[in-house]
Amino acid sequence: MHGRCENCIIRELNSFKALKKEELKRISDSKVSKIVKKGETLFAEGEKLNGVFCVRSGVSKLSKMSNNGKDQIVKIATKGEVLGQRSVISDESTNLSAVALNDMEVCYIPKQHLQESLNNNVEFTKAVLVHIASDLKFADNIIVNMAQKTVRQRVAETIKYLEDNFGKDNEGYISITLTREDIANIVGTAKEACIRTLSSFKKENLIATDGKRIKIEDKKALYRLIEGF
Amino acid sequence: MHGRCENCIIRELNSFKALKKEELKRISDSKVSKIVKKGETLFAEGEKLNGVFCVRSGVSKLSKMSNNGKDQIVKIATKGEVLGQRSVISDESTNLSAVALNDMEVCYIPKQHLQESLNNNVEFTKAVLVHIASDLKFADNIIVNMAQKTVRQRVAETIKYLEDNFGKDNEGYISITLTREDIANIVGTAKEACIRTLSSFKKENLIATDGKRIKIEDKKALYRLIEGF
DNA sequence: CCTAAAAAATGACATTTGTCATTTTTTACT
DNA sequence: AGTAAAAAATGACAAATGTCATTTTTTAGG
């Protein structure tokens, strides 16, 4: 609970692995560990952040409200992700809000320390740069999918994404369970359309469901569908 | 034509302003100035780049082909933009292709020099980081628009974007002229839908057109439409 | 200035997706 | 285990968008 960053294995997953010992010590001394319950907000769109959140466990959605009242999920962040990073880098308020999808353990790190490292440790700055560049590439792909793929294809892609990133339990179901509405908000469609699409996938034996849980039954066919057949 | 980077005013527009004199000299010695004609490809999706392109004049579209054969434009790059940067940072092949929308003057800079500066000059690395972070924020916004806004709203938004970024000529027409198909590829819709939407905007006196040229006639109404009224 | 090719425009229609209303099922809690 | 609330599922219909065919207009080049 109150471990030291120096010993935290999570940092192997993010840019913090490029930090030097002294830097880690300083960060560790000022960081605050927090438990965030399912449904709670880490930060809201437009807020000015004075630090970042390093995710130790649990899952958070990063989303942006659109004028029609729908929440578009832009990213699902899990263990190792550093939330609020972009906004600290540019010294702007956040463009996204972060809400816990299940109970989370996070460390809050005041931004001064990060900024100092960004200003002095090229290795760290470069690591952050590479990470953000990869987020950008990912975002470009989402744009293309949103613009060019059907809801069916995007639902299929989202299921694949969830399995690839969160794995399966011992029964073969995708480990992360989202509400149909959250899935719809990733896909960028109405929840009814999302539900119908999942039902149709079930009829076609592409997937099986049990409550909220989803299992991919015919991976090949699902992948073909994503590619447009 | 063969000016020195040290004297190039374009670099005030991008991260190159954070480079030191020696760095600029080295880059200047190895850079190659090129003229790229309208319609020509600077680089294609999937290509491995050995350098970046700094745009001195002209406009390029950055796009990605989707499986249905449509080209999704992700960004319009103009004076000062550095193309291929993301791919050099991550040392991967590019995820986008770049095609000139009109005649361009660009400088090709071999990647070694950039990488050296990224490894040694924190100021530069940070400047690049801030720039990529801003691209990411922009991309997040596009995702939300694609997912949640109608074609009408997105066409309106694209027109606003073009006027804001490329200005108007002395008759009030937007300075950059794209084909309807290119506009459709920014909006993420079929060209017929794009044409129909523009025609309807014309009927409603939101815009006026003359050939490819577009002029915003009722900015307020157009902006209201973007917001969803 | 003329002409072929490209782009824009339009019609007709199919398909996809969104919206609203309602019922059924699941979940969380005592 | 029982119950209220939330989530999922489904039907019916409207609206938005895509596709294909065709005509009209514009543009580029000799």
Characterization of this structure:
Two copies of one chain form a homodimer. Chain A has 229 residues and is an alpha+beta fold. Chain A contains eight helices and ten strands. In chain A, the strands form three sheets. A four-stranded antiparallel beta sheet of chain A has the order 1-8-3-6. A four-stranded antiparallel beta sheet of chain A has the order 2-7-4-5. Chain A has a two-stranded antiparallel ribbon with strand order 9-10. In chain A, a hairpin with a 5-residue loop joins strand 4 and strand 5. In chain A, helix 6 (180-187) packs across helix 7 (191-203). The longest helix of chain A has 27 residues, at 122-148. The first copy, chain A, is elongated, with a radius of gyration of 19 Å. The termini of chain A are far apart. At the A-B interface, helix 2, helix 3 and helix 4 of A face helix 2, helix 3 and helix 4 of B. Chain A binds a DNA duplex (30 and 30 nucleotides) through residues 150-152, 179-181, 189-193, 195-196, 198-199, 211-212.
Quick overview:
Two copies of one chain form a homodimer. By secondary structure, chain A is α+β, with helices and mostly antiparallel strands.
Strand order of the largest sheet of chain A: 1-8-3-6
Structural class, judged by helices and strands of chain A?
alpha+beta
Which assembly state applies to the chains in this document?
A: homodimer
> C-alpha Rg of chain A, in Å?
19 Å
- Please state the average pLDDT score of chain A: 95
